[in-house]
Fold:
Amino acid sequence: MSLAPEVIAPGFRPDQLEGFRIGVTSDRRSGDLIDALERRGAQVLHAPTLRIANARVDDPVIADTRAIIDARPDVLLATTAYGVRRWFEVADAAGLGDALVEALSASAILVRGPKARGGIRAAGLNDVGMSPHETTDSLVDTVLEQYPPGLTVAVQLHGFLDPAQLDRLREHHARVLTVEPYRWTLPDDADERVGRLIDAIRTESIDCVTFTSAPAVHALFAAAESVGAGEEVIQAMRGPVVAAAVGPVTAQPLVDAGITPVQPERFRMGALIRLVCEHLEEHRVERLVTRAGPVELRGSVVEVRGRRIQLAPAGRTILRTLVAANGSVVSRERLARALPGSCDEHALEVAMSRLRRTIGVPGVIATVVKRGYRLDL
Structure:
């Protein structure tokens, strides 16, 4: 008998993320992340900014594998679990699996992180160490610091390896061999999801964007820049749109852009999910007591008198602006400018009327004649 999710996941609540809209930029294993967020009530926008693509034909991987078998390298650098698994799958299919394991059994195998270590051990091999910071450059640092020059070094490439790291190895070692079991590719031009994510970030109609790799961050910034929204996206993620990174390597390009992402202490998917839940509940739920009773705004949902009501994008923008003003008057001009896609005061009046009808409780939003609107606290 299987246990219910509430039992297996301590602290799990199906309404933890109700009202929040979250962007997921990962491709591989995105289903696990999306399912976990949706089971907690979130609305998810999946927009993989990069895709993992295996080679259309395995001939180059097989040729590189034969070269590595013949060379019997002194050192092997394993960078990703998926890359290791994919490499050995191709080798096995080509009848080279046993020969590859035998050739690498005498190699000093260094892994970039625990996942790559798991891939190596699943292949029947053992590593001799892990990079101190779970990064490729620190992995190369380890080789250069701990091993004499003039060796034969093999590198399992991942989808976004900096060529400068290979150059560092080539400067010190006699032979550097590589194998590339997969690579990152940009989404197809017909895939409009990244464009929708960019629009959601720049209009602040999304609450959080998750990242599980640094290349995904770079790709999002490049895509935003290509449509003239680069600075808007960065500014939004410096403010109300939370950027959540699985670890410091993923977070670095965000930090370089002046964004302060949230990141878990343990660089794992489960820890990222828990952190997103905790952070949004603690920092992105606004609570005020009005004359009509308590009002709680969580993403696109407002709770009034025990009822949770889904807001339209314009209504969400208006109410969020009024909540931020904490009872002070907000001018019509300012509210109109904040509306997505409109600076028209007539559009504001229509949106305000719909918002009041949606809330259904008189007296929450007060009109201040000739000045604007405020929450009636």
